[in-house]
Amino acid sequence: MAEHPARPCCLGWDFSTQQVKVVAVDAELNVFYEDSVNFDRDLLEYGTQGGVHVHEDGLTVTSPVLMWVQALDIILERMKASGFDFSQVLALSGAGQQHGSVYWKTGASPALTSLSPDLLLHKQLQACFSIRDSPVWMDSSTTAQCRQLEAAVGGAQALSCLTGSRAYERFTGNQIAKIYQQNPKAYSHTERISLVSSFAASLFLGSYSPIDYSDGSGMNLLQIQDKVWSQVCLGACAPHLEEKLGSPVPSCSVVGAISSYYVQRYRFSPGCKVVAFTGDNPASLAGMRLEEGDIAVSLGTSDTLFLWLREPMPALEGHIFCNPVDARHYMALLCFKNGSLMREKIRDESASCSWSDFSEALQSTEMGNGGNLGFYFDVMEITPEIIGRHRFSAENHQVSAFLPAVEIRALIEGQFMAKRIHAEALGYRVSACRCVWRPSVCHRHCQLGLCGLRIPSFPWPCSWNRRALFRGCEVSPKSQISCYPNRRSFSGLRGPSPSIRQA
Predict the structure, then answer these.
(1) Separation between Cα atoms, residue 351 and residue 48, nearest integer Å
(2) By the 8 A CB rule, do 35 and 469 touch?
(3) For the Carbohydrate kinase FGGY N-terminal domain, which residue ranges apply (predicted)?
(4) In a 10 Å sphere around its CB, with 0-12 CB exposed, 13-18 middle and 19+ buried, how is residue 451 labelled?
(5) pLDDT tens digits, the chain, 503 residues: what are they?
(6) Per DSSP, which regions of 243-378 are E strands?
(7) In whole angstroms, what is the distance from residue 154 CA to residue 234 CA?
(8) DSSP 8-state class, residue 224
(9) Per-residue DSSP letters for 141-177?
(10) In the sheet that 435-437 helps form, which strands lie side by side, from edge to edge?
(11) What 8-state DSSP symbol labels residue 493?
(12) What radius of gyration, in Å, describes the C-alpha atoms of the chain?
């Protein structure tokens, strides 16, 4: 068994759609350990595709909650086998896919607080969930509940002004309302409802972790100005909901010390602190240290644009969340559901499953694609609400197919065109800011798309999955925890540098 030298550190966890990931960093934010468990590849027994189950109606999308727990078990056991020194971990925090919800069964709390160090977590928590398949952000089955919620508060704009967003099918409040209406028995047997982020934190705490302000903003339940649950929204969704949610807390809160389970089984220090986990998008904003005027492009399972705001500007399109770094400020967010999975489908269909062939085909066509346009939504899109593949020739006639190279460019140009159009419609002045983007497997199509933004743009210099790390993993010599990275570690991102190119 390999031994790692003693090295005070923090752990960052990411409970995302397709995998659970961990990174370990020292006080200088140097990453010296990382690992991941891919649900489709490493946990075949759950039968997921892309980490989820799409139900027969094509709208309901869930993930097995125990799959997430077992993935954590696997990573921790791997770390233990590698000789990782858990006693050196001063604190941990993380991120979870936004909007997903976990339903703890009545009586689960004692099981969580009395975990046996002789058994794996997933073996002990099997009976702890009233809903075994958690609704996730890809779910679009709650349209009726959305309309009910908007009607209860006086319309979509009123709800947006109150909670930062109009009612969206994936938002947790509407998912809770659906469960209450369609499965009231399971709801009545639920003692606590967590977001994926607070669920993950709860596993480390050995007790229920509170929901943080920033991730809680993605529920259509939190009054973003006052940072309290909206009584009108709670009442419109389900009874006794406030007690099942608990009180929200600032995203930078230390929510407690690590459970004795981890101390006994893995030799964590009893003093290891757990910082509130937050949503994946808020964690990304914190990790990249965006400032007012900046814009970030995340190309992941869903594509996301987000930026820092001092004053909220709620609208019918896009979202306003509480800022994960400074509770006095806010962040704006635009989500596009058909992201990397859509690009991978077109890659498989038009480029023989090869990113290299994909890039070559892209380069073989000219910018503007000869006037050919394409918009690709294999699952119900969020922005705008539409489904299907829509292709238009240079003569503005709808066509059924393109040549492979034309298809590839139509996909990429269409996706980035949509991002710019929707961002400007919300009042974003992209011409006056910098753009930070994540290089993907096929980074050329990222560069192409950013040409459409026509702003100074440069890649984030580390893997995007380290967003969880950077929201809670800076440790001072006095072992105090800060929820954003050290400025010195990112000096290259402040102002012009050789890596910046003018698009």
Answers:
(1) 25
(2) no
(3) 136-287
(4) middle
(5) 555 567 899 999 999 999 999 999 988 888 999 999 999 999 999 999 999 999 999 999 999 999 999 999 999 999 999 999 999 999 999 999 999 999 999 999 999 999 999 999 999 999 999 999 999 999 999 999 999 999 999 999 999 999 999 999 999 999 999 999 999 999 999 999 999 999 999 999 999 999 999 999 999 999 999 999 999 999 999 999 999 999 999 999 999 999 999 999 999 999 999 999 999 989 988 887 777 767 778 787 888 888 788 777 788 888 999 999 888 989 888 889 999 899 999 999 999 999 999 989 998 999 999 999 999 999 999 888 899 999 999 999 999 999 999 999 999 999 988 988 887 766 666 555 566 665 554 444 445 444 444 545 555 555 444 555 555 443 333 333 333 333 333 333 333 322 222 22
(6) 254-257, 273-275, 278-279, 295-299, 303-309, 319-322, 330-336, 373-377
(7) 15
(8) T
(9) --HHHHHHHHHHHTSHHHHHHHHSS---TTSHHHHHH
(10) 319-322, 330-336, 303-309, 295-299, 435-437, 456-459, 501-502
(11) G
(12) 22
Please, what are the domains in the chain?
9-281 (3.30.420.40)
User: Amino acid letter at 177?
Assistant: A
Structure tokens belonging to residue 23 = 């990174």
Asked if residue 274 lies in contact with residue 254, where contact means CB atoms within 8 angstroms, the answer is yes
Residue 482 pairs in a beta bridge with 474
Please give the full DSSP string across 45-108, using - where no structure is assigned: GG--BTTBEE-TTSS-EEEEHHHHHHHHHHHHHHHHHHT--GGGEEEEEEEE-SS-EEEEETTH
* N residues, the chain: 503
Instruction: Write down the residue that tokens 């704009």 correspond to.
Output: 157
Residue from 200, 173, 177 nearest 93 by CA: 200
Residues 103 and 130: beta-carbon distance below 8 Å: yes
**What pTM, to 2 d.p., does this model score?**
0.79
Phi/psi at 133 (5° precision): -115, 110
Helix and strand totals (H; E) in the chain: 19, 27
Q: Is 488 helix (H, G, I), strand (E, B) or coil?
A: helix
Side chain identity at 52, as an amino acid letter? V
Burial of 269 (0-12, 13-18, 19+ CB in 10 A): middle
Sign of CA dihedral 82, 267, 250, 72: positive
**In this structure, what token pair is assigned to residue 38?**
């891919």
Q: Give me 134's structure tokens.
A: 């958690």
Q: Which of 7, 42, 37 is nearest to 20 (CA)?
A: 37
Contact between residue 467 and residue 283 where contact means Cβ atoms under 8 Å apart: yes
- Reference 107, options 130, 135, 87; nearest CA is 130
Task: Please check whether residue 236 is in contact with residue 162, taking contact to mean a CB–CB distance below 8 angstroms.
Answer: no
